[in-house]
UniProtKB/TrEMBL annotation:
It holds the Pfam family HEAT_EZ. InterPro entries: ARM-like, ARM-type_fold, HEAT_type_2, Importin_beta. It is found in: Cytoplasm. PROSITE patterns: HEAT_REPEAT. Keywords: Cytoplasm, Protein transport, Repeat, Transport. The keyword Metal-binding does not apply. This is LAFE_0B12068g1_1. Residues 356-377 are annotated as: Disordered. Residues 364-376 have a biased composition (Acidic residues). Its main location: cytoplasm. GO terms for biological process: protein import into nucleus.
Length: 898
């Protein structure tokens, strides 16, 4: 215990301010806030806050001055203030008093106070102890928490589980006196998980262990069997829902990280989980149990024959859990009437965010196909989890799943209750992908049936049917195109459904068909009709579905070149909307995005619109940049959301892609390079999506426009590119890095980088040859292309030093081989051969590298431009080439050469 004592007067003063800070009067509150801010600079401020939180109940002066409820609220406020101050600037204060006394707050009988104390303790660990592990108070505090928990103090184990959630990995390190807390944590938690006196303590102890399992810490691994045996004991006897929730989570964790440990016990575990799902109604628990089934089905370590025996038990259960629950059914039944004319309220519109997956980042192709676009609820729940499980199970054991499911489905497809029909259609959609081959016989009767359901009187049934039919799109488009028109026409009609939720599902479904179709089929069969329908939709839709419509229009534009008809039918709506929206309306984002696809698709036909569209996008971009700059010195300026910058950059880029060199005069009128100033500011932005879009624009400018233009700001751009390569190591931000590397390639192909080439090549090579971290494939591929492009003017810099080793050539060949864009691939290999042509032949290339080279260059590369270099290279390596075991394709390729 620390000997610090508060000054009575100061204490009362602070308490009064805290009471004011909770006052209903706005004025008193904001005055109080100001005073509190000024107190922050007092060195003992945190001591006072801690004292009020923890010891107020024994302070006679305070108890006399305040009513119990006021005192309690004031303590809570002090606690939250304490937490925030530690979070913001713990370094400014001496924390001794807090560290020694805070734990007493856990004894408070008032749960609000003990809870807030827990939050403060958690914050101490996340900010202070995590860095100052040698401070022996850290370990002491952990021991105290464990000790208290073992005496039945629930607040302390809750605090501990919060601490572990944020910091578990740090407990594997050494703290004071070389102690690794993980060992005694595991030891104590194993016994706490069976603590008889309190289910909360058992549940929280398991929750703590759940943060340890993924770390695979040695101190846990050696005790894993003990943990399992405790777990199974609880599974048999403990009916508490909190305990069971944590139990299910443990099982999911173990399955992911130590499936070997569970293999012998799977039968019992699956039975346990099924039992919960069959008998419990509480969805927070059944969802965790459902998660186990999903993990069980998805785990690649679990052999099919282990899953197979459970199919007959699992499938009916999953099907039953896919039915909307009573509450949802009531909501749907109360809201089935048509609402197409009802205006959308702004708050109903989900925050739209600009699509950020565009451009040169081939790495992230995860087209997040929403499992259930048809659902009103956007949250993950048991229904969706069950559908996902059914989907996965069908893909591994299609025959068994279908034969288990079909009797139910057949019976339920024409059930009287709409929610049974609905769930059945959901199930069919979920099984579509995995069961496609086995469905084939049923589908010719099933599809017309589903199409009929698009007319169901119940909106949720129509909605799910739109979704389910889209799931059959690959089947229809591969071998069963006779179904295309019979299916897509009714879906197109559903675009005009009188229920907005159905419109939404229909438009998403149409978008899937557009994505899945070959462009030829879209052009010949669907294009005109889609345009006509979209035209109608533009007149019919309310705000929210319009946003989704923009997306579908954008996809169509991406798929096939827009023509005069599109200009007549679609553009007026977009331009009309575009003119009616203010520059700061968020609805502009999807519209800008859509226009950028259309501009790219219409190409020169967009020319007449281009000046207006461009000048607006440019204006928005300039406004954002100006406000952003101004806000640096004046924090009161409200900065517009970054999506305005991103989407206007993307639209400008769309114009450049569509109009090519024709847009140069637009962006750089009479050679005015203001655009570059703005771009340079965007490249400084801390948000990687802004940089991502700006680097994409930079690359296209380098590609399409006169090289003299970029040359005026070359040094600056190269500096930002270097910075990006050197300092962006955030996985999330990889697209921005990719675009930076890509644009560097295009620039160095157009402009002789002369004196900068040495530094830049070093940066690129350092990134490329770094074997100390795992670098995303897309980044490595972009680096490989950029090395090739840099060699266009300067092959010589790659002929000695880091790149001139067999292992790096081999690495290069591995990544270049996988390039998908033929133009990039050709540029890459062309450059590589220039390097090889100049490289001293005394550096040997291994036969495996030569083989990789031949593998890569024999597929999808236009070799004419560098045929001489290629011949010379193959000649120089001919003795090795002769001894390679080549595939027929590769032999054919080499024969062509000679
Ligand atoms: C308050 O007083 C009680 C009774 O003397 C004592 O048990 C408790 O530890 C005190 N609380 C604090 C936070 O000092
Ligand atoms: C405090 O209570 C909230 C709400 O019940 C809970 O979410 C949180 O985990 C608790 N925090 C601690 C540290 O006990
Ligand atoms: C805690 O760690 C920080 C950063 O390592 C250091 O600056 C500070 O002096 C340490 N504080 C104490 C009390 O050890
Ligand atoms: C270049 O264009 C910007 C606006 O886009 C304008 O403010 C600036 O004065 C122009 N500079 C020159 C030299 O014309
Ligand atoms: C590439 O070369 C560097 C420098 O010679 C070397 O350290 C590195 O290990 C090589 N990279 C690979 C992938 O072999
Ligand atoms: C190239 O693609 C193949 C096949 O998809 C894959 O196995 C290989 O790992 C890829 N190589 C690299 C370097 O990513
Ligand atoms: C380099 O290429 C030229 C033709 O482009 C060829 O004549 C010469 O032999 C090549 N040199 C080497 C070392 O491959």
């Amino acid at each position: 215990m620390s000997t610090w004592n508060p000054n009575g007067q100061s204490l009362i003063q602070l308490v009064n301010v805290l009471v004011d800070s909770l006052s209903p009067s706005h004025e008193r509150r904001s005055n109080a806030m100001e005073v509190l801010e000024s107190f922050k600079f007092q060195p003992e401020f945190l001591n006072y806050l801690c004292y009020i939180l923890v010891e107020a109940e024994n302070d006679t002066q305070l108890c006399r001055n305040l009513a119990p409820i006021d005192l309690q609220n004031c303590r809570a406020a002090a606690g939250m203030y304490l937490k925030n101050s530690i979070l913001q600037d713990s370094k400014e204060y001496n924390l001794d008093y807090v560290k020694h006394n805070i734990i007493q707050g856990l004894f408070s009988p008032i749960s609000l106070i003990s809870n807030i104390t827990g939050i403060v303790i958690t914050t101490l660990f996340s900010t202070y102890y995590r860095q100052n592990r040698s401070d022996c108070n850290g370990i002491q505090m952990i021991s105290q928490l464990l000790e208290l928990a073992s005496q039945g103090n629930e607040a302390s184990i809750k605090a501990l589980s919060k601490i572990m959630e944020d910091n578990a990995q740090f407990f594997q390190l050494e703290w004071s006196n070389s102690i690794k807390p993980m060992e005694f944590l595991v030891n104590n938690l194993l016994s706490l998980m069976t603590y008889e006196g309190s289910a909360v303590i058992r549940a929280e102890a398991i929750k703590c262990i759940n943060t340890i399992i993924p770390l695979q810490a040695q101190s846990f691994v050696v005790r894993a069997d003990e943990f399992l045996s405790n777990l199974f004991g609880l599974a048999q006897h403990d009916e508490d829902r909190l305990v069971r929730i944590q139990l299910c989570i443990s099982l999911v964790n173990l399955l992911e990280f130590r499936p070997d440990k569970l293999l012998d016990h799977l039968n019992g575990i699956v039975q346990f989980v099924l039992h919960i799902m069959n008998t419990v109604t509480d969805e927070s628990l059944t969802l965790e149990a459902g998660e186990f089934l999903l993990a069980f089905a998805s785990n690649s370590h679990i052999p099919e024959n282990v899953i197979k025996p459970f199919i007959n038990d699992i499938i009916p259960l999953l099907l039953s859990k896919m039915v909307y629950n009573e509450e949802d059914v009531m909501i749907f039944e109360a809201s089935n009437e048509n609402d197409a004319d009802l205006e959308d309220k702004d708050e109903d519109i989900r925050p739209v965010s600009a699509k950020l997956s565009k451009k040169r980042d081939d790495g992230n192709l995860d087209d997040d196909e929403d499992e259930d676009d048809g659902d009103v609820d956007t949250q993950w729940n048991l229904r969706k989890c069950s559908a996902a499980t059914l989907d996965v199970l069908t893909s591994i054991l299609p025959r068994d799943v279908l034969s288990a499911a079909f009797p139910f489905l057949r019976e339920h497809l024409s059930a009287n209750q709409w929610f049974i029909r609905e769930a059945t259609i959901l199930a069919l959609g979920a099984m579509a992908e995995g069961g496609m081959k086995y469905f084939t016989e049923q589908l010719p009767t099933l599809i017309p049936f589903l199409v009929e359901e698009l007319k169901d009187e119940w909106a949720p049934v129509r909605t799910i049917t739109c979704w389910a039919l889209a799931r059959f799109a690959p089947w229809i488009l591969q071998d069963n195109t006779q179904f295309l028109i019979p299916v897509i026409e009714p879906i197109m009609n559903a675009l005009m459904d009188k229920k907005k939720s159905v419109q939404e599902a229909a438009i998403s479904s149409v978008a899937v068909f557009i994505e899945t179709c070959d462009s030829e089929i879209v052009e010949t069969l669907l294009y005109n009709e889609l345009l006509a329908k979209f035209n109608q939709c533009f007149q019919f839709y309310q705000k929210k579905n319009l946003i989704i419509l923009y997306d579908a229009v954008g996809r169509l534009a991406e798929k096939c070149e827009f023509d005069e008809t599109a200009m007549e039918l679609i553009l007026p709506h977009l331009i009309g909307k575009w003119t009616s929206l203010a520059d700061n309306d968020k609805e502009l984002w999807p519209l800008l995005e859509c226009l950028s696809y259309i501009a790219a698709s219409l190409g020169e036909k967009f020319l007449p619109m281009a000046p207006d569209v461009y000048s607006r996008a440019w204006r928005i971009l300039c406004q954002c940049v100006e406000l952003e700059e101004a806000s640096q010195s004046n924090p009161n300026i409200e900065v517009p959301e970054k999506d305005f910058m991103i989407t206007s950059l993307d639209l400008i880029d769309g114009l450049v892609q569509g109009l090519g060199s024709n847009s140069q005069e637009l962006l750089f009128p009479k050679g005015n390079t203001s655009m570059f100033h703005v771009m340079l500011i965007c490249l400084r932005d801390s948000l990687h999506e802004v940089r991502q879009s700006c680097f994409a624009l930079l690359g296209d400018i380098a590609y399409f426009f006169q090289p003299q233009l970029i040359a005026t700001h070359l040094v600056d751009f190269l500096r930002y590119i270097s910075n990006e390569i050197l300092h962006n190591d955030d996985n999330e931000a990889a697209p921005s890095l990719n675009n930076a590397i890509w644009s560097l390639g295009l620039i160095s192909e157009k402009i002789d980088l002369a004196e900068y080439i040495i530094d830049l090549s070093r940066i690129v090579l350092d990134a490329f040859t770094d074997t100390t971290k795992v670098i995303q494939t897309s980044i490595m591929e972009n680096l490989a292309v950029t090395i090739g492009r840099m060699a266009h003017f300067h092959p010589e810099i790659f002929t000695s030093g880091a790149f001139a080793t067999d292992s790096n050539w081999s690495r290069w060949c591995e990544h270049a081989a996988n390039l998908s864009d033929p133009e990039e691939k050709a540029a890459a290999y062309g450059g590589f051969l220039k390097i090889m042509n100049l490289t001293d032949t005394s550096i040997p290339m291994s036969s495996s590298t030569i083989h990789k080279f031949i593998q890569g260059i024999s597929r999808d590369v236009e070799i004419i431009p560098f045929l001489d270099d290629l011949r010379a290279f193959l000649m120089s390596q001919s003795s090795t080439v002769q001894n390679l075991k080549l595939s027929e394709e590769e032999i054919f390729f080499l024969q062509q050469m000679s």
